[in-house]
Structure formats: C-alpha cells, structure tokens
Design goal:
The strands form 2 sheets. This protein has a 3-stranded mixed beta sheet, with no helix packed on it. A two-stranded antiparallel sheet has the order 2-3. The protein has a domain of 31 residues. The relative contact order is 0.17. The protein is of the alpha+beta class.
Length: 212
C-alpha cells in the first residue's frame, strides 16, 4: 500500500538560488537585441535587476533611436512565481498514422535548410500532449518581481523638420564636448515667418484615458 502511494506522489525539484525578474514587454518580440534596446540596453537591464528601490519602475522607449522621446513606465510588483524550462523531444519531421506501427515517411527536419519558426501556444500545448511522459521539466529559478506596462504612451510630435531640435539632438545629446561647444542660440528678435516652434517636454500627463 505504501509503495502504491509512493508512486503516485509528484517528484521533488530543487529551485536554484537565481535572481530572476520578469518583464512583460508590450510588443511581439522578434528581435531580442532590439527589445533590449527599448529597455535602455545593458544599462537598463542592470537597473531592472539591481534597482535602487524594490519598487523602482522600468523604462521602455518605443523609439530608442530618438533621445528626446518619452518612455513608458512600468508597474513593478512583487511576485512569487517559478520559471520552468520544459524540454520536449525534437521534432523529426517524419510522419505515420496515429496508433500504427507502420514505418515513418517524410524527410527529417535536420536535412532541410530552414530557419526555425517561433511556435505558437497552441502548437506548444499540442507538443506537450503528444509527448506525455517524454518531456523534461527543470526549474530555473524564482521570479520575485514582475514589471508590466499597462499605461498609454505619450503623444509624439515630429521634430524632423525643426532646425533647432536637430541641432540640439546632434550637438548636445551626443555628449561630445567639441560638438557641444558649437551649439549656439539665435537671439535675434522680430522673426514673424517660418518660426521654429519647439514642442513641450511632454504633451500628456496621464497614462490612462480616464480615471475610474
């Protein structure tokens, strides 16, 4: 009786002491390097992993190439989740009738020169159901904090046609001392045509459409 009960118990897994932070990116990630760039690169990732305060918000720039764009601020909350790594048998590409012992047909995937495509959640669940007892589960670590982006981004005012903003972006935001010395402001008065209108630092002070 004890042996039967022992076989029905779930296996035990030890969780590595690894510091993991979850970031729910609002975009569909197809290029990991660009996704990291929207989070301010390695500097931003370092701040997310080692924040000055536990609830410090993460910043996400939808236009990281523009130094004057405003970021999205995350909602940082404590969590108590486990990150699992699930490994299923590699797909061979060969087929045969379900439930039969007929020989496989088709060309193995390893002989086809194609880039691996990102599988959908439906395909992953189907792969798990087709490989019951054959896949491996490995705990990676504890997720103690999660960052989500639920707010609306600020409005964007195009400054590509603004001479002042282009000079400011090139000479000041480059943080090059020689270029910064070249920056000068036109103090002449009386301009009435082709006036360069500079947008404010922010156009919207709210990140939700309505306060309920």
């Amino acid at each position: 009786m004890m042996d039967q009960q022992g076989t029905r118990t779930a296996p035990y897994y030890s969780i590595p002491a690894r510091h993991i932070v979850s970031v729910e990116h609002p975009a569909i990630i197809k290029n990991v390097d660009k996704a990291i760039e929207t989070l301010q690169g390695n500097t931003g990732i370092s701040k997310i992993l080692n924040p000055p305060k536990a609830d410090t918000r993460a910043k996400l720039f939808l236009r990281p190439e523009d130094a004057m764009s405003r970021p999205l601020l995350s909602t940082s909350s404590a969590s108590n989740n486990i990150l699992l790594k699930v490994t299923v048998p590699k797909r061979t590409g060969r087929k045969r009738k379900r439930g039969s012992d007929e020989p496989f047909s088709g060309v193995p995937v390893t002989t086809v020169n194609e880039q691996p495509q990102r599988r959908s959640a439906k395909q992953l669940l189907r792969s798990l159901s087709d490989n019951v007892g054959k896949y491996q589960v490995e705990p990676v670590g504890m997720v103690n904090r999660t960052h989500v982006f639920r707010g609306m981004p600020d409005f964007v005012y195009s400054t590509t046609g603004s001479p002042f903003t282009n000079r400011f972006r090139e000479q000041i935001l480059s943080f090059d001392y020689d270029k910064m010395k070249q920056f000068d402001i036109d103090m002449s008065k009386g301009a009435t045509s082709n006036i360069d209108i500079i947008p404010p630092p922010s156009l919207s002070h709210g990140d939700v459409p309505f306060t309920y």
